[in-house]
Amino acid sequence: MTQLPPARFIDAAADSAPKLGATHQPLRERVRDLIRDRIVRGEFAPGDRLVERVLAEELGVSRVPVREALNLLKGEGFVQDVPRRGVIVTMLSRDDLDDLFEVREALEVQSARLACLRASDAELAALADLARQADEALAAGDRDRLSDCNEAFHDAIPRLAHNRILATTLEPLEGRLHWLLRQNRSPGVLMDEHRELVQALTARDPERAEEIARRHVHTSRMICHELMFGETD
User: Fold this and answer.
1) Residues in domain HTH gntR-type (predicted)?
2) What is the pTM for the complete model shown?
């Protein structure tokens, strides 16, 4: 069993987030998306305890949509129930990480192949622009923008495959890794592989796109293992 760190309670900060109760849009999904985004960005770290009452006060909603949002996030693997602690941000074990990457490899390789065959020229041009923006962010030392561009790049490829079920299946898997890859201090190799993938997609070379996508997943897996467990292979 994974050893959990001491609980760290999340306190609400004044005006740190929009008050969702003032809107007329469905709250459960909006609350879920906001909490997920804060996990991805590292505001809620693995092992942090998420308290319904605190989150409800911070977001300006009742505890019901918060409870529903946390249940959705449990299904996506972002949070978990722990006896005597309540809901915490999920901590991945080595086995969890390897299982996640096995599924991610299968889906991302298929996404790359389908995107190569189905994406429009305009969609591929937009993908290339994301890679270019990431290069500019790296050169400017803007790590937050760099992470945003790289995440947008990964989120875009399943959409370019034009397979709705594939995209919705990959979304939570990608999200569970975004927060970790934001801690990567050597993003150059990942960005190089992004550029290679754009070239293969633009050339409409599905075999090459598959090979690069598979290699990219392996590179990400190695980085995540090093960040989480200090392992280099």
Assistant:
1) 25-92
2) 0.76
Between CA 132 and CA 62 the distance in angstroms is 42
Question: Given this model, what pLDDT does residue 174 score?
Answer: 83
Tell me the domains of the chain and their CATH numbers.
20-89 (1.10.10.10), 94-229 (1.20.120.530)
Cα separation, 173 vs 101, whole angstroms: 9
Question: Per-residue pLDDT averaged across 192-213, rounded?
Answer: 98
Average pLDDT of the chain to the nearest whole number = 87
SS (H, E, C) the chain: CCCCCCCCECCCCCCCCCCHHHCCCCHHHHHHHHHHHHHHCCCCCCCCECCHHHHHHHHCCCHHHHHHHHHHHHHHCCEEEECCCEEEECCCCHHHHHHHHHHHHHHHHHHHHHHHHHCCHHHHHHHHHHHHHHHHHHHHCCHHHHHHHHHHHHHHHHHHCCCHHHHHHHHHHHHHHHHHHCCCCCCHHHHHHHHHHHHHHHCCCHHHHHHHHHHHHHHHHHHHHHHHHCCCC
Q: What is the pLDDT of residue 21?
A: 47
d(CA 126, CA 121): 9
